[in-house]
Design brief:
Length: 123
């Protein structure tokens, strides 16, 4: 099976047949036009990171966002950090040039980047 699908009765006005067919994920996304949950999570993460970036360097939240954990790390690959996720999200939409903390200081530009991450479509 190719993934989740739904049976749908074909009742368009141009062709009035009563046959059933499977709709694939892309067709369902176009039909219901709901936002992609992954995109919503990424955009909200970026929105929060912009808020924290404008707070100032001496806040505890900022230290958690950009800080590096001390001590011995566990086996396996290193865990993803918030800052790494923000950089990856920005690179997806082509806004990864320069320091993201400086980009976040300009609210209007940052808001545009957050919207681009939310509305980004993968071909």
């Amino acid at each position: 099976m190719d993934g989740p699908s739904v049976m749908w009765q074909n009742e368009s006005c141009s062709e009035c047949t009563s046959e059933w067919r499977k709709l694939h994920n892309e067709e369902l996304n176009d039909l219901y036009s709901l936002p992609n949950i992954v995109r919503v999570v990424k955009s909200r993460r970026m929105r929060w990171a912009g808020h924290v970036a404008r707070m100032g360097e001496d806040t505890g939240v900022q230290r958690v966002l950009v800080g590096k954990p001390e001590g011995k790390r566990p086996l396996g690959r290193p865990r993803r950090r918030w800052e790494g996720n923000i950089k990856t999200d920005l690179q997806e939409v082509g806004g990864g040039r320069g320091d993201w903390m400086e980009l976040a200081q300009d609210r209007d530009r940052w808001r545009i980047l957050v919207g681009m991450v939310r509305d980004f479509r993968v071909p």
